[in-house]
Amino acid sequence: MDFSKLRGRLCSRHHADKIAQRLKDEGIPAIVIPGCGPLQPWRVIETDQTPPRVVSRKDRVCLG
What we know:
There is one protein chain. By secondary structure, the protein is an alpha+beta fold. The protein has one domain (5-59). It is built from two helices and two strands; from the N terminus they run H-H-E-E. A two-stranded antiparallel ribbon has the order 1-2. Strand 1 (30-34) and strand 2 (42-46) form a beta hairpin. The protein is elongated, with a radius of gyration of 12 Å.
C-alpha cells in the first residue's frame, strides 16, 4: 500500500511520540502503543501514573 508523504509522517512513530509529549505537556499522561494496520501503526492512549509495561509489536491494539 503506497501512502503520500504526509500520510507517512502522520503514521510514523516520531509523530505519535510528539502527540504523546504534547498531551504530557498538558498534564495528561499518555503512552504510545503498537496499533493495528498500516493506517494506524501506532496509537497514543491516555494512561494512569503507573509505569506502563513494555508492549511489543505482536501485542497490537485493534479496535473494531
